[in-house]
Design a protein that fits this description.
Oligomer: single chain
Strand content: under 5%
Order of helices and strands: HHHHHEEHHEEHHHHEHHEEEEH
Largest sheet: 3 strands, antiparallel
Strand order of the largest sheet: 5-8-9
Low-confidence stretches: none
Helix content: 40-55%
Number of strands: 9
Radius of gyration: 20 Å
Shape: globular
């Protein structure tokens, strides 16, 4: 299939995926939603630490979706809605359609899904989840990751629509992260707590993501209170980059792995920080990180590896973030656009269902075909929107006859 035919196929798949998500009211299952089970609620012995962990991992890893048998409902998830919102903002710039009403609807959904009992705008997951050591996180409990993605999507809307309500909600979300989650031991260590305020975690992707939000808010508001913590945390996590360009997921003994999509988060975040602050402070980290990323996370056929040292599982989230990351750096790395297309071609051949959704994982022995709304469809809609938007602007530049004539 030539490039033009594939890009047309991608546009058709984007619209089909969008239709699938809309027909399902943007609600679905999640890899970690086991504790939404009515069976768990009805049988007290299951509602304790070990059974919660076992059930969550069983459902997550099973090639057969057992959720209907366990009376687990499909739900809207604030992070998924945020990803859909960011994707729609991109698609509105791609020439693929008019999405203004959908964008407004997504903003309203984020407002409705706001975590309760707090003066800040913040968000949590649509399911309770059991951490390995620290107990259960109740459904809807606000956390850094959900709040950051929701706030970032609202900021995307503000940048396009100049809707001050979106900016106000974003600033409030940033204040939540600053006042409730930022910690500094007064020495060398600093960070943002995740998943609960009491946990002084050193999780690098969440550190970088929060720092990105702070820098974007500072750029639009001039609020200096966000700048110092953003740079302090970003510098701390940047200092933990290994000499080969990689990062562990975090600094706890249980977090010493290196994976595809969190590495992608880190790299995109550092680029965003440098761009928004007009600096090149993190250029060296980015350069080393991109080299490691390209060299270790992709098979020759375009399949994205989950871990740097082994392929399986091939996860749809890695597919999505690979496309987003590679295109984010296409102007500085020859071949990135081609590699992003190779990743997408592989996913369309092996993980796309003609009913309009993407599968969860390809294992060595089988494929887990469960449709997950947040983990799979929301992320892939954002990745497809990024790809379609990039192709649209590339075509515009080509028609204008100058690479600099039109900017995305």
């Amino acid at each position: 299939m030539n490039n033009d035919s594939f890009r047309e196929k991608t546009r058709v798949a984007t619209l089909k995926l969008l239709s699938y998500c809309e027909q399902n009211d943007w609600a679905g299952y999640d890899p970690y939603d086991a504790l939404n089970s009515k069976v768990v609620e009805a049988i007290p012995v299951l509602d304790s630490r070990i059974p919660r962990l076992v059930l969550t991992q069983l459902l997550k890893r099973s090639p057969i979706n057992l959720r209907a048998l366990l009376f687990i409902p499909k739900k809207q998830n604030a992070k998924a809605i945020a990803l859909f919102l960011s994707a729609l903002v991109k698609l509105s710039r791609s020439g693929l359609g008019n999405y203004e009403q959908l964008i407004t609807s997504m903003i309203d959904r984020l407002i409705a899904l706001r975590s309760q009992g707090t003066p800040y705008w913040c968000w949590g997951y649509s399911f309770p989840w059991q951490t390995r050591k620290t107990g259960i996180v109740p459904r809807g409990t606000p956390n850094l990751v959900c709040t950051m993605f929701a706030a970032s999507a609202l900021l995307d809307c503000y940048e396009q629509r100049h809707d001050t309500q979106c900016l106000d909600m974003t600033v409030s979300a940033a204040d939540y992260i600053l006042k409730e989650l930022y910690w500094d031991d007064g020495g060398a260590e600093v960070g943002f707590s995740y998943p609960l305020p009491a946990l002084r975690s050193q999780t690098h992707n969440s550190n970088f993501l929060a720092a990105v939000l702070f820098c974007r808010v500072h750029k639009h508001t001039g609020e200096e209170r966000f700048l110092t913590p953003a740079l302090k945390v970003a510098r701390f996590s940047a200092s933990k980059q290994h000499s080969d360009g990689s990062w562990y997921y975090g600094e706890r003994p249980t977090q010493l792995w290196i994976d595809n999509f969190h590495t992608g988060y880190n790299l995109c975040a550092l680029q965003s920080i440098d761009r928004d602050l007009g600096t090149s402070e993190f250029e060296g980290c980015i350069r080393q990180g991109i080299e490691f990323y390209r060299s270790n996370f992709f098979r020759d056929d375009g399949a994205p590896r989950y871990f740097h040292n082994r392929t399986y599982p091939i996860d749809i989230h890695c597919v999505a973030q690979s496309i987003i990351t590679l295109l984010a750096f296409k102007d500085r790395e020859p071949g990135n656009a081609e590699l992003a297309e190779s990743v997408l071609r592989w996913a369309m051949a092996h993980m796309w269902d003609d009913r309009g959704f993407f599968y969860y994982r390809v294992l060595r022995s089988c494929t887990i075909r469960t449709s997950y709304m947040r983990w799979s469809q929301a992320w892939m809609l954002l990745a497809l929107a990024t790809f379609v938007c990039d192709s649209h602007w590339a075509q515009q530049r080509a028609e204008a006859g100058s690479p600099a004539a039109v900017r995305a």
